[in-house]
Protein: Lipoprotein
Amino acid sequence: MTEASCITDQGLLFINDGMHGGQVAIDTSGNITIPEAVPAGFEGKPKVEATSADGKYWVGYAMDKNGHLGGLYHPLLWTDGVPEVLPMPEKGFREQELTTGVMARGISANGEVAYGTSWENYDFGMLYWKRNGNGFDAPQWVGKDVREMVSGVWTRPDGREYEYTYVNGIICQAWNTQVSPSGKWIAGRYRKEFDPETEQPIDQENYAAFYNTETEKTIIVEDYGESGGQFVTDDGIAFIGLGTLGVTTGKVYDLNTQTDLGDTADWAYDTYGIIIPTGYINYVSADGKMAFGTSASYSVGGISFIKWYIAPPLEKEK
Structure:
């Protein structure tokens, strides 16, 4: 067993099986199940990435029957343990034919909005699905209002030419906690690859970005330079990690007023009245009583990342 993947409010814990692939699920009574069921036409063991709070819905992915000889990853949704395939986009993030596929990465606590990634090379294009009755609509790109592309034949510094489509848009890697509890907001990273005015490629720029699934509008936060959106609450309080690699510090930002609310430690002290290490917030529960975060620990061997949580104390048994 290598790492915990996700857990429901009822305590059903999914743990990755690093030896045999796939996962095992363990409940609070110690019962073990293996979520191996996949729809017809798929093979191999699926991966559950996230669940709704009540445990009714799970999302993840599996590869179709062609396997690694040309198969595609497909996003999956389990309802009460029964899997189905979520709709796939017609094209990839750069409007190319899909060659690797799409993975579902997360789902809102109420099960109404799921999101995932277009796993084509290093595109990491972020898309989402909204529930419509008993099913989900076709996927849309997160930040579709700010997504733009330019295609052409470009020249490398050594004079060689190449054909490529550059995209300014919102990306997501293997991140599982980017959607607010009701699905109103989705956090991500706006990656800028070209100058819209000159339509020429530039050195990549990355900024925290937050997409409202109700208004279908994006707020890009450039105030902190290189950064990424870690999480956002339903009422628009955004949590930002500074930098893009080895993130160790964070900021809190009000999307409603587009104002800075201070460092993560300041926000934690103002909200919960406790002192935490510097770091950033990964998730806040719908009622605001619990928060999960990440901090860095420095030693001779380098940097290690420590996960921590804030929660009310457990009541002692009487």
